[in-house]
Amino acid sequence: MPAELISFHGLADRREHLAVRIGKPGRVPLVRLHSECLTGDVFGSLRCDCGPQLHEAIAKIDRAGGYLLYLRQEGRGIGLYNKLDAYRLQDQGLDTFAANRKLGRADDERDYTVAAQMLRSLGVDEIDLLTNNPDKVEQLRGAGIVLRSVFSTDVHSNPDNYRYLKAKVVEARHAIELERAGS
């Protein structure tokens, strides 16, 4: 799989985000906005679906040609340490969103302005988007990126992340068909 890492300077949040060009992107590339998840992406945590979504996105983009935007927005933007504190609260019975609120944080603090900036820098203003998250769709459209199509990721459910996925459906309207997964 041919891939190229692309770094950026001067983004709105001044963080170090990466684009990974995978394959040969067409005029309307397949794009995945993937927020950093150290526990899921690197350590294979079963508490979330981040690692499986990352691997799925890479495989699909490899077939279609496009970009993986790896965004430094750990824990829905609350950072690694707050995310680990939220895990402790989840172990006490709170869902992922209630845990964030208990920590005094928003349900989701991510801002996808940088994703739109990155796409424009790459010369891309129309995409096919791979996501279950309606907030990504709304924010990209609000930033002037044209979405030709939106494709849901597969359901990556297991006994350890079912409550997490259910909360994403109920609290944030994610397009995850848990019934299809048989959980």
TrEMBL record:
It catalyses: GTP + 4 H2O = 2,5-diamino-6-hydroxy-4-(5-phosphoribosylamino)-pyrimidine + formate + 2 phosphate + 3 H(+). It holds the Pfam family GTP_cyclohydro2. Keywords: GTP-binding, Hydrolase, Metal-binding, Nucleotide-binding, Riboflavin biosynthesis, Zinc. SUPFAM superfamilies: RibA-like (SSF142695). Coiled coil: none annotated. One of its GO terms (biological process) is riboflavin biosynthetic process. Its cofactor is Zn(2+). Residues 4-145 form the GTP cyclohydrolase II domain. This is GTP cyclohydrolase II. It comes from Actinacidiphila bryophytorum. The lineage of its organism: Bacteria, Bacillati, Actinomycetota, Actinomycetes, Kitasatosporales. The gene is ribA.
